[in-house]
């Protein structure tokens, strides 16, 4: 049957459910295509008004590690493109556990689709918190990180790139963050190489978002600057180019930033660069961390980056960091910049200056 003919079937939900639970493979394939068409419409409320169809689709996927299971998950990807659909899926811990299982089983042919679903349902902070807490309680964090960091993890050729995006979303959950940056057992460092080695933008953006979210709590900054995390070169390497420096200047830089090859390229995506720059700005919140960052010749890397950058949003972002680094601590005069209260009239004036800079006015 053609797509037009399938769409005209107008099947009742109970009929759809019965077929999905039945054993007729040909009929099931046709109904899965019908559900996919319905799920792609703006109003797919009949598929989400209760738990039945979502549960049936997940059961089909659980029994079919093949194109049939992929077709079932395609509908859930569509369903979770809406807030209503996300809420409906996350209502059930069993749903979440199945989606995680599809994502993390090494031979899963459903993994890429399951990762997209996981990314969708963790966009909202309240849902990310629920999913993050479930992963922690099930001791699944190490496996999740392993799947992101090991590109050969899945044996069925699935890339799992959207797992990195879901990971970034999950760092909206404070408990999830705390597990990642724990000075003894934290595992954030295992995924950090993806920032400069990730093949796809989705991967790099996901890890950049995760690192940015983990830096909102200034109490963890010094922990993250030191081993085993060592996040300063992680943040700077994607912003660094092939420029050469004097021997004395190299001596103060982290080893990862010294003598970079002539073909070294900077991060191509402006959004990822912006996340890295905003992360550096957060790192400069407190005096000990500012001194740490300043003493490692971060300014030199950012000076050369500033010459290269054309995006005005990012030019403003890097200038904000440079402005802090070139000032002495005596000039700054406070330990924690976040504690400084700016009067509303000055805040409005500064925001206008920023907007004017970005627009070139």
Automatic annotation (TrEMBL):
Domain Protein HGH1 C-terminal: 279-332
Location of the Protein HGH1 N-terminal domain: 105-273
Family indicated by similarity: Belongs to the HGH1 family.
Protein name per its UniProtKB record: Protein HGH1 homolog
Gene: 106672845
